[in-house]
Every structure is written in structure tokens, then in C-alpha cells.
Amino acid sequence: DMGAKLLCLFLVSALVAYYVYTPIPEDFEEPWKVMLITAGFRTVSHLSEVADQLGLMHYMEALMLITAAEYIAPTSDENVTVTDTEFSNVAIRLYLPRKPSDGLRRAVVYFHGGGWCVGQAGMKSYDRLTRWTSSRLNAVVVSVNYRLAPKYRFPVQFEDVYSVTKFFLQSSVLSQYGVDPDRVCVAGDSAGGNLAAAVAQQLLEDSEVKTKLKAQALLYPALQTLDLNLPSYQDNENKPILPKSLMVKFWSEYFTSDSSLREAMTSNRHVPVESSHLFQFVNWSNLLPEELKKDHVYTSPAYGSSELAQKYPGFLDLRAAPLLASDAQLRGLPLTYVLTCEHDVLRDDGVMYAGRLRAVGVPVTHDHAKDAFHGAMMFVSGPTELAVGHRLLNRYIEWLNENL
Ligand SMILES: *[C@@H]1O[C@H](CO)[C@@H](O)[C@H](O)[C@H]1NC(C)=O
Ligand SMILES: *[C@@H]1O[C@H](CO)[C@@H](O)[C@H](O)[C@H]1NC(C)=O
């Protein structure tokens, strides 16, 4: 009867409202839009979980379907010629400016985000970001489609982006594209920022590479696996669009699908006591400013079994966790741009890296966006367009324009 139907309707509405509702920090612009975007991501995540539980496909492969839905083929426009090709047998999307140039051009080698598991250079949002970078800076942009987990594990992702960068930095290749060898940078967001930081570090030690990077730009990067309970992980456990549980999944999937690593990382007991010396490099008690420590109390690390680190040594490897580099290893790094967002589990990774680089004399520009969440720069077009996305993107391109 009518009453039962109304009750039903009421219950369903309440459930939907509960599901859509995410507490949005007060200083966010366009809170409703952010809430809907978050609900969209949460829905996809839940559906992927269901597909995984039913044995239909791996969780990450299901998440990858969004990437496919967001894909656009390489399309040239009046300013930029866009092609899909390969450098050193790795797929790339190449953006070549069409405007004439007085002299040699600048270049950006870009690594997209997506937790080493999802994403691709041809997603609309990344295509926009790299196309605008190319067009506005009159620069060559190489956007790398490195291979992804779960099919490929660490260090494949790193090796792919490294070999593309190394290939591009050869003087014969730079001159073929009219690029100034003194004005090349690496850049990336999230997992791509992780890869950019790792590439910049490894290039310092590679005697085969003669061309030095001018700069690195790290956009809300993931930089360490050691402490997954930093104040930023605690403060932002359920913020849009990267909850802690998903970040832990991304980290563990980078190395293995073995759930014992994920479980150990979830409880932050994955590092063996033999590696205790590494905690000095992620010690937020020393490395975070007071305003981010707030009322968090530093506790000594909890250690796990050595078996995990023996089986999956990647999570303690510098190429996966660039924040674990010693000061001596950081010293030679190029001019650095770091963007961090207040409402991001990865906030403290970026803040600590910027601080450590500065302390050893690397010139750093650190922008901290107080009203932004992880991945905000992806939302620059279509129904999910956000003012904060444009603001962060413009600022990044402006920095490159002034410093590259
Ligand atoms: C090409 O560049 C001009 C000038 O910078 C800009 O106004 C225009 O929007 C660009 N076109 C595209 C398709 O991005
Ligand atoms: C972290 O820093 C604090 C404060 O300086 C210090 O007491 C603590 O021993 C350090 N912990 C580690 C693991 O380095």
C-alpha cells in the first residue's frame, strides 16, 4: 500500500544520501560538485571490489575501465601535433608545438598518476594537461605510457619511464626535436610524481647520461612506503578522491597481489626492525612544520616480520620510495617544484621531501594548496570541471614557464 511504498522510498533516499554524502571541508569551493565526484569514485571503487570478489576480474583491472572510458585518440589541434609512438620500446604520447620558435625549445617528460596500476597519457584529463603545457610553453612534451600493475610490478614502471627519459636525453634525439639540452624537466602527479622524483635521483648516478635535468615538478607525489600512518594519512583517511585504503592498495599492488603485504601496510607494521635506520628519513616529528603536526603525537615505529621485506624488497627501494634517499643523495638534485594539498593522504610525503631538499641546498618552490584534495588538477574539463583544478594547473604551468 501507499504507506509501505513511501517508507520504501524514504529508506532508499536515505541510503543514497548516506552513500553520496562525504563531509567536505568548509574551505572547499563547489562542495556539491566535489561531493558528487567523490560519490562517483566511490561507486566505481565498490563495483570494482564486487567484480574482484566475484572473481570476474582483478580490482585494478576493473578500476582501469574508467581509464578506458576517459580515453581519447591522439588528436592534433592548431597549436600542437599529437602522435602515439614509442621511445626505447615504451609507448609514449608525443606533443610537438606547431608555433615557430626563435631558438631551441623546452621539453617536459611527463608521467601520469594512477597508483602505478591505472591511468594513461590518453585520458582526457592528462591529454589536456600535457597539451596545454606544450601549447603554452611552446615546449615538446613526452607523456609516457609505462606498463602497469597488476600485470607488471615494480620496477617495470620505473624502468619504463627511466628508459624513455634516458633515450630522450641523448643529444641526437634532443636535436632531432629541436630541444635545448639545458631546458629539460621531468614532471608527474601522484604515482607519476613518485616516478619523476625517482628518475631525477637515479639520473644523478648514471654516468652514461651527459645531459642534466633543469628541473623536476612533483604534483602531490607519493614518496615513501615506510610510514603509512603519517598525520596526513590520519587526517585525510576518507577525503576525496584517494582514501587511505585505496592508497595502501596501490602501494601493495605495485609490488604484489599477496594480501599479507596489504594487511601489514594497513596496520603500518610492514617494515622489519633491520630497516629501522630508514625511519630517520620519514620522521615527521622532525620533518613536519608545527601547523601540520597539530595534536598528533609521535610514536616510535612498530616493526613487522622480515619475511615480507625479503619477499618484496621493492617497498624499501629508493626507486619506489625516493624520500628514503640520504642527504648526500639528494644534494645534486635540480630545481624543484612541489605541490601539496592539505586534504590529501600524501600531503606529508611532499612536505617532508620539499623540506629535506631545501635543507641540503636544492632550490625548491613548495606550493601548499589549503583548499585542495588529491588529484584536483585532473578536474579541468567537462561536467567534473573545478575552479581549484584550473588554479593548480595554471600555477604549475606558470612555474614551468618561469623556471624551465
Ligand atoms: C592555441 O593557442 C592560442 C594562443 O595561445 C589559444 O588562444 C588557443 O585556445 C589554442 N588552441 C587550442 C585548441 O588549445
Ligand atoms: C624521530 O624524531 C624524534 C624527535 O627528534 C626522536 O625523539 C625520535 O627518536 C626519532 N625517531 C626515529 C625513529 O628516528
Automatic annotation (TrEMBL):
Name of the featured protein: AAAD deacetylase
Active site: S190, D344, H374
Keyword Lipid biosynthesis: no
Gene3D superfamilies recorded: alpha/beta hydrolase (3.40.50.1820)
Species for this entry: Sula dactylatra
Residue intervals of the Alpha/beta hydrolase fold-3 domain: 108-266, 315-377
Signal peptide: 1-17
InterPro entries to which the protein is assigned, alphabetical: AB_hydrolase_3, AB_hydrolase_fold, Arylacetamide_deacetylase, GDXG_lipolytic_enzyme, Lipase_GDXG_put_SER_AS
